[in-house]
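Hi V.,

You were right to ask for the full record rather than a summary. Here it is.
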Amino acid sequence: MELIMRKYILSVLFILLATALFSAGRTENAAAAEADKGDSVKNVIEITDSTGNRVALEKIPERITFAGRASIMVADALYMFPEASKRIVGVGFTNQGNGNFTAAIDPTYKDKVYLDKSAGVEQIARTRPDLVILKSYLKKSLGKPVQELGIPVLYMGLENPRQYEDDFRVLGKVFGNPERAEEIIAFYRNLQDRIVKRTEKLEKKPKVLFVYHSSKGGETAFNVPPKNWIQTGMVEMAGGDPVWADDVSGNGWTRVNLEQIAVWNPDYVFVAAYKQNVKAIVKKLLESKQWENLNAGKNGRIFPFPEDFYSWDQPDSRWILGAAWLARTISPDLFKDFNIEAIAEKFYKELYFMDDSVYKREIKSRLGW
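Predicted structure:
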Protein backbone atom coordinates (compact mmCIF):
# COMPACT_ATOMS: atom_id res chain seq x y z
CA MET A 1 0.00 0.00 0.00
CA GLU A 2 2.84 2.32 0.94
CA LEU A 3 4.55 1.56 -2.40
CA ILE A 4 1.37 2.36 -4.32
CA MET A 5 0.99 5.64 -2.44
CA ARG A 6 4.57 6.64 -3.29
CA LYS A 7 4.00 5.92 -6.99
CA TYR A 8 0.81 7.97 -6.87
CA ILE A 9 2.55 10.93 -5.26
CA LEU A 10 5.41 10.78 -7.76
CA SER A 11 2.94 10.68 -10.65
CA VAL A 12 1.11 13.74 -9.32
CA LEU A 13 4.38 15.61 -8.82
CA PHE A 14 5.47 14.76 -12.37
CA ILE A 15 2.19 16.00 -13.81
CA LEU A 16 2.42 19.24 -11.79
CA LEU A 17 6.01 19.78 -12.90
CA ALA A 18 5.20 19.11 -16.55
CA THR A 19 2.24 21.47 -16.37
CA ALA A 20 4.40 24.18 -14.81
CA LEU A 21 7.09 23.78 -17.45
CA PHE A 22 4.52 23.85 -20.27
CA SER A 23 2.89 26.97 -18.85
CA ALA A 24 6.26 28.65 -18.45
CA GLY A 25 7.11 27.80 -22.04
CA ARG A 26 3.85 29.27 -23.28
CA THR A 27 4.45 32.41 -21.22
CA GLU A 28 7.95 32.79 -22.61
CA ASN A 29 6.72 32.26 -26.17
CA ALA A 30 3.93 34.76 -25.67
CA ALA A 31 6.38 37.25 -24.19
CA ALA A 32 8.74 36.70 -27.08
CA ALA A 33 5.91 37.18 -29.56
CA GLU A 34 4.89 40.39 -27.82
CA ALA A 35 8.52 41.53 -27.84
CA ASP A 36 8.79 40.80 -31.56
CA LYS A 37 5.58 42.69 -32.13
CA GLY A 38 6.91 45.57 -30.06
CA ASP A 39 10.18 45.61 -31.99
CA SER A 40 8.22 45.59 -35.24
CA VAL A 41 6.21 48.58 -34.10
CA LYS A 42 9.37 50.34 -32.98
CA ASN A 43 10.97 49.74 -36.39
CA VAL A 44 8.09 51.33 -38.29
CA ILE A 45 9.22 54.57 -39.93
CA GLU A 46 6.57 57.21 -39.35
CA ILE A 47 6.78 60.33 -41.51
CA THR A 48 4.57 63.41 -41.68
CA ASP A 49 5.06 65.44 -44.84
CA SER A 50 4.50 69.13 -45.64
CA THR A 51 0.77 68.62 -46.18
CA GLY A 52 0.19 66.89 -42.84
CA ASN A 53 -0.12 63.55 -44.60
CA ARG A 54 1.19 60.70 -42.43
CA VAL A 55 2.92 57.62 -43.79
CA ALA A 56 4.03 54.54 -41.86
CA LEU A 57 6.70 52.47 -43.60
CA GLU A 58 7.70 49.01 -42.37
CA LYS A 59 11.25 49.58 -43.60
CA ILE A 60 13.36 52.03 -45.54
CA PRO A 61 11.85 52.06 -49.05
CA GLU A 62 13.84 50.30 -51.75
CA ARG A 63 11.66 51.16 -54.75
CA ILE A 64 10.88 54.88 -54.95
CA THR A 65 9.02 56.54 -57.80
CA PHE A 66 8.58 60.26 -58.37
CA ALA A 67 6.21 61.53 -61.03
CA GLY A 68 3.91 64.29 -62.22
CA ARG A 69 4.46 67.88 -63.22
CA ALA A 70 7.19 69.84 -61.43
CA SER A 71 9.19 66.61 -61.14
CA ILE A 72 12.44 68.54 -61.53
CA MET A 73 12.00 70.03 -58.06
CA VAL A 74 11.34 66.64 -56.46
CA ALA A 75 14.17 64.97 -58.37
CA ASP A 76 16.70 67.65 -57.51
CA ALA A 77 15.93 67.28 -53.81
CA LEU A 78 16.04 63.46 -53.92
CA TYR A 79 19.38 63.26 -55.69
CA MET A 80 21.16 65.23 -52.98
CA PHE A 81 21.12 61.95 -51.04
CA PRO A 82 23.72 59.33 -52.04
CA GLU A 83 21.14 56.53 -51.72
CA ALA A 84 18.85 58.00 -54.39
CA SER A 85 20.36 56.37 -57.46
CA LYS A 86 19.94 52.83 -56.07
CA ARG A 87 16.51 53.36 -54.53
CA ILE A 88 14.72 55.26 -57.30
CA VAL A 89 13.04 53.02 -59.88
CA GLY A 90 10.56 55.37 -61.59
CA VAL A 91 11.50 58.86 -62.81
CA GLY A 92 9.26 61.71 -63.91
CA PHE A 93 9.84 64.25 -66.69
CA THR A 94 12.88 66.41 -65.84
CA ASN A 95 13.76 68.30 -69.02
CA GLN A 96 12.93 71.99 -69.47
CA GLY A 97 14.56 72.19 -72.87
CA ASN A 98 18.20 72.45 -71.87
CA GLY A 99 18.89 68.81 -71.15
CA ASN A 100 18.01 66.23 -68.51
CA PHE A 101 19.83 66.93 -65.24
CA THR A 102 18.66 63.67 -63.66
CA ALA A 103 20.22 61.65 -66.47
CA ALA A 104 23.46 63.61 -66.05
CA ILE A 105 23.86 62.78 -62.35
CA ASP A 106 22.40 59.26 -62.15
CA PRO A 107 24.67 56.60 -63.71
CA THR A 108 21.78 54.10 -63.58
CA TYR A 109 19.25 56.41 -65.25
CA LYS A 110 18.91 54.17 -68.31
CA ASP A 111 17.64 51.38 -66.05
CA LYS A 112 14.78 53.46 -64.62
CA VAL A 113 11.17 53.42 -65.75
CA TYR A 114 10.48 56.75 -67.45
CA LEU A 115 7.15 58.47 -66.75
CA ASP A 116 6.05 61.45 -68.82
CA LYS A 117 4.24 64.49 -67.42
CA SER A 118 0.82 62.97 -68.00
CA ALA A 119 1.60 59.61 -66.36
CA GLY A 120 -1.34 58.33 -64.35
CA VAL A 121 -1.99 55.80 -61.63
CA GLU A 122 -1.55 52.72 -63.83
CA GLN A 123 1.85 53.79 -65.13
CA ILE A 124 3.04 54.62 -61.62
CA ALA A 125 1.78 51.28 -60.25
CA ARG A 126 3.71 49.40 -62.94
CA THR A 127 6.98 50.56 -61.37
CA ARG A 128 6.01 48.46 -58.30
CA PRO A 129 6.95 51.22 -55.85
CA ASP A 130 6.97 50.91 -52.09
CA LEU A 131 6.87 54.72 -51.95
CA VAL A 132 5.73 57.42 -54.37
CA ILE A 133 6.85 61.05 -53.99
CA LEU A 134 4.90 63.89 -55.60
CA LYS A 135 4.75 67.66 -55.54
CA SER A 136 2.15 68.70 -52.97
CA TYR A 137 -0.27 70.32 -55.42
CA LEU A 138 -0.83 66.88 -56.98
CA LYS A 139 -2.27 65.47 -53.76
CA LYS A 140 -5.90 65.29 -54.90
CA SER A 141 -5.50 64.70 -58.62
CA LEU A 142 -2.77 62.04 -58.55
CA GLY A 143 -1.74 61.24 -55.00
CA LYS A 144 -5.12 60.16 -53.67
CA PRO A 145 -5.79 57.62 -56.48
CA VAL A 146 -2.32 56.14 -55.94
CA GLN A 147 -2.94 55.86 -52.19
CA GLU A 148 -6.22 54.08 -52.87
CA LEU A 149 -4.15 51.26 -54.40
CA GLY A 150 -2.42 50.84 -51.05
CA ILE A 151 0.79 52.55 -52.18
CA PRO A 152 2.27 55.02 -49.66
CA VAL A 153 2.63 58.57 -51.00
CA LEU A 154 4.64 61.49 -49.65
CA TYR A 155 4.24 65.08 -50.80
CA MET A 156 6.96 67.70 -51.14
CA GLY A 157 6.26 71.44 -50.73
CA LEU A 158 9.57 72.79 -52.07
CA GLU A 159 8.30 76.35 -52.54
CA ASN A 160 10.32 78.42 -50.06
CA PRO A 161 13.40 78.12 -47.80
CA ARG A 162 11.42 76.84 -44.80
CA GLN A 163 9.65 74.17 -46.83
CA TYR A 164 12.95 73.07 -48.30
CA GLU A 165 14.37 72.47 -44.83
CA ASP A 166 11.29 70.52 -43.77
CA ASP A 167 11.34 68.43 -46.94
CA PHE A 168 15.06 67.68 -46.65
CA ARG A 169 14.39 66.27 -43.17
CA VAL A 170 11.55 64.15 -44.53
CA LEU A 171 13.90 62.75 -47.17
CA GLY A 172 16.48 62.09 -44.47
CA LYS A 173 13.96 59.72 -42.89
CA VAL A 174 13.02 58.20 -46.25
CA PHE A 175 16.64 57.30 -47.00
CA GLY A 176 17.57 56.52 -43.41
CA ASN A 177 20.17 59.27 -43.57
CA PRO A 178 19.17 62.20 -41.33
CA GLU A 179 22.81 63.28 -41.07
CA ARG A 180 22.88 64.03 -44.80
CA ALA A 181 19.69 66.08 -44.46
CA GLU A 182 21.35 68.27 -41.84
CA GLU A 183 24.45 68.68 -44.02
CA ILE A 184 22.29 69.94 -46.89
CA ILE A 185 20.35 72.29 -44.64
CA ALA A 186 23.61 73.67 -43.22
CA PHE A 187 24.87 74.45 -46.73
CA TYR A 188 21.74 76.46 -47.52
CA ARG A 189 21.60 78.22 -44.17
CA ASN A 190 25.24 79.24 -44.29
CA LEU A 191 24.94 80.88 -47.70
CA GLN A 192 21.55 82.41 -46.93
CA ASP A 193 22.84 83.90 -43.67
CA ARG A 194 25.86 85.38 -45.42
CA ILE A 195 23.52 87.16 -47.83
CA VAL A 196 20.86 88.36 -45.40
CA LYS A 197 23.26 89.65 -42.73
CA ARG A 198 24.58 92.13 -45.29
CA THR A 199 21.46 93.10 -47.19
CA GLU A 200 19.29 93.66 -44.13
CA LYS A 201 21.52 96.61 -43.21
CA LEU A 202 20.93 98.42 -46.52
CA GLU A 203 19.20 101.74 -45.91
CA LYS A 204 18.30 102.30 -49.55
CA LYS A 205 17.36 99.36 -51.71
CA PRO A 206 17.32 99.57 -55.52
CA LYS A 207 14.06 99.01 -57.38
CA VAL A 208 14.14 95.60 -58.98
CA LEU A 209 11.87 93.99 -61.57
CA PHE A 210 11.83 90.27 -62.22
CA VAL A 211 9.95 89.12 -65.33
CA TYR A 212 9.27 85.80 -66.97
CA HIS A 213 9.32 86.29 -70.74
CA SER A 214 6.87 84.03 -72.55
CA SER A 215 6.09 83.61 -76.21
CA LYS A 216 3.12 81.87 -77.79
CA GLY A 217 1.86 82.08 -81.34
CA GLY A 218 4.33 84.83 -82.14
CA GLU A 219 3.04 86.98 -79.28
CA THR A 220 5.42 87.83 -76.46
CA ALA A 221 4.49 88.70 -72.90
CA PHE A 222 6.13 89.76 -69.67
CA ASN A 223 4.89 88.16 -66.47
CA VAL A 224 5.58 88.83 -62.79
CA PRO A 225 5.20 86.39 -59.88
CA PRO A 226 2.93 86.75 -56.83
CA LYS A 227 4.26 88.34 -53.67
CA ASN A 228 4.57 84.99 -51.89
CA TRP A 229 6.55 83.18 -54.61
CA ILE A 230 10.22 82.40 -54.24
CA GLN A 231 11.28 84.80 -57.02
CA THR A 232 9.96 87.73 -54.97
CA GLY A 233 11.60 86.37 -51.84
CA MET A 234 14.93 86.00 -53.62
CA VAL A 235 14.89 89.64 -54.72
CA GLU A 236 14.15 90.74 -51.15
CA MET A 237 16.82 88.45 -49.73
CA ALA A 238 19.36 89.85 -52.19
CA GLY A 239 18.69 93.42 -51.08
CA GLY A 240 16.31 94.59 -53.79
CA ASP A 241 12.89 96.21 -53.63
CA PRO A 242 10.51 94.09 -55.79
CA VAL A 243 8.55 96.90 -57.48
CA TRP A 244 5.67 94.66 -58.59
CA ALA A 245 4.96 92.94 -55.27
CA ASP A 246 2.24 95.28 -53.98
CA ASP A 247 0.59 95.84 -57.36
CA VAL A 248 -0.34 92.27 -58.30
CA SER A 249 -2.67 89.70 -56.77
CA GLY A 250 -3.55 86.09 -57.40
CA ASN A 251 -1.68 82.83 -57.08
CA GLY A 252 0.02 82.67 -60.46
CA TRP A 253 1.91 84.69 -63.04
CA THR A 254 0.44 88.13 -63.81
CA ARG A 255 0.92 89.57 -67.27
CA VAL A 256 2.15 93.18 -67.31
CA ASN A 257 2.55 95.66 -70.15
CA LEU A 258 5.33 98.11 -70.93
CA GLU A 259 3.27 101.04 -69.64
CA GLN A 260 3.14 99.47 -66.20
CA ILE A 261 6.84 98.62 -66.33
CA ALA A 262 7.58 102.26 -67.23
CA VAL A 263 5.61 103.41 -64.18
CA TRP A 264 7.69 101.14 -61.96
CA ASN A 265 10.87 102.35 -63.74
CA PRO A 266 13.14 99.74 -62.15
CA ASP A 267 16.86 100.19 -61.56
CA TYR A 268 17.46 96.54 -62.39
CA VAL A 269 15.55 94.09 -64.57
CA PHE A 270 16.12 90.34 -64.37
CA VAL A 271 14.66 88.10 -67.05
CA ALA A 272 13.88 84.39 -67.06
CA ALA A 273 12.64 82.62 -70.18
CA TYR A 274 12.07 78.91 -69.72
CA LYS A 275 12.68 76.88 -72.88
CA GLN A 276 13.81 80.01 -74.75
CA ASN A 277 17.16 81.67 -75.37
CA VAL A 278 17.10 84.16 -72.52
CA LYS A 279 20.41 85.76 -73.49
CA ALA A 280 19.09 86.58 -76.96
CA ILE A 281 15.91 88.02 -75.45
CA VAL A 282 17.86 90.31 -73.12
CA LYS A 283 20.08 91.44 -75.98
CA LYS A 284 16.98 92.61 -77.87
CA LEU A 285 15.62 94.40 -74.81
CA LEU A 286 18.88 96.30 -74.36
CA GLU A 287 18.67 97.39 -78.00
CA SER A 288 15.00 98.39 -77.74
CA LYS A 289 14.11 102.10 -77.59
CA GLN A 290 11.16 101.26 -75.35
CA TRP A 291 13.43 99.75 -72.73
CA GLU A 292 16.30 102.20 -73.03
CA ASN A 293 14.21 104.91 -71.35
CA LEU A 294 14.04 102.91 -68.13
CA ASN A 295 16.70 103.43 -65.48
CA ALA A 296 17.70 99.81 -65.98
CA GLY A 297 17.99 100.27 -69.75
CA LYS A 298 19.98 103.50 -69.52
CA ASN A 299 22.53 101.88 -67.25
CA GLY A 300 22.69 98.52 -69.02
CA ARG A 301 21.20 96.73 -66.04
CA ILE A 302 18.92 94.26 -67.77
CA PHE A 303 20.23 90.78 -67.08
CA PRO A 304 19.35 87.22 -68.09
CA PHE A 305 18.95 84.91 -65.13
CA PRO A 306 21.70 82.26 -65.07
CA GLU A 307 20.67 78.79 -66.15
CA ASP A 308 22.40 75.47 -66.58
CA PHE A 309 19.90 72.65 -67.05
CA TYR A 310 17.29 74.84 -65.35
CA SER A 311 17.00 78.54 -64.62
CA TRP A 312 18.20 79.60 -61.18
CA ASP A 313 15.08 81.64 -60.41
CA GLN A 314 12.71 78.72 -59.84
CA PRO A 315 11.67 77.01 -56.59
CA ASP A 316 14.17 74.33 -57.51
CA SER A 317 17.24 73.40 -55.46
CA ARG A 318 19.16 76.11 -57.37
CA TRP A 319 17.22 78.96 -55.77
CA ILE A 320 20.07 79.53 -53.31
CA LEU A 321 22.45 80.06 -56.25
CA GLY A 322 19.97 82.50 -57.76
CA ALA A 323 19.82 84.47 -54.51
CA ALA A 324 23.62 84.65 -54.28
CA TRP A 325 23.93 85.77 -57.91
CA LEU A 326 21.24 88.42 -57.43
CA ALA A 327 22.99 89.79 -54.34
CA ARG A 328 26.33 89.98 -56.16
CA THR A 329 24.72 91.69 -59.17
CA ILE A 330 22.56 94.19 -57.25
CA SER A 331 25.22 95.14 -54.68
CA PRO A 332 28.63 94.30 -56.16
CA ASP A 333 30.51 96.41 -53.61
CA LEU A 334 28.78 94.65 -50.73
CA PHE A 335 29.51 91.20 -52.14
CA LYS A 336 33.01 91.59 -53.56
CA ASP A 337 34.02 88.31 -51.95
CA PHE A 338 31.18 86.40 -53.63
CA ASN A 339 32.72 84.42 -56.48
CA ILE A 340 29.53 83.02 -57.99
CA GLU A 341 31.33 80.53 -60.18
CA ALA A 342 33.16 79.13 -57.14
CA ILE A 343 29.92 79.03 -55.13
CA ALA A 344 28.17 77.16 -57.95
CA GLU A 345 31.02 74.68 -58.26
CA LYS A 346 30.91 74.00 -54.52
CA PHE A 347 27.13 73.58 -54.69
CA TYR A 348 27.25 70.88 -57.37
CA LYS A 349 30.26 69.06 -55.98
CA GLU A 350 29.09 68.96 -52.37
CA LEU A 351 25.37 68.49 -52.91
CA TYR A 352 25.35 66.37 -56.10
CA PHE A 353 28.69 64.56 -55.72
CA MET A 354 30.02 65.84 -59.07
CA ASP A 355 33.69 65.50 -59.84
CA ASP A 356 35.58 68.22 -61.67
CA SER A 357 35.16 66.76 -65.15
CA VAL A 358 31.40 66.27 -64.79
CA TYR A 359 30.94 69.78 -63.40
CA LYS A 360 32.83 71.34 -66.31
CA ARG A 361 31.08 69.22 -68.92
CA GLU A 362 27.52 69.38 -67.62
CA ILE A 363 27.24 72.65 -65.66
CA LYS A 364 29.97 75.13 -66.51
CA SER A 365 29.52 74.61 -70.24
CA ARG A 366 25.81 75.44 -69.98
CA LEU A 367 26.38 78.50 -67.81
CA GLY A 368 28.79 79.84 -70.41
CA TRP A 369 31.32 80.99 -67.84
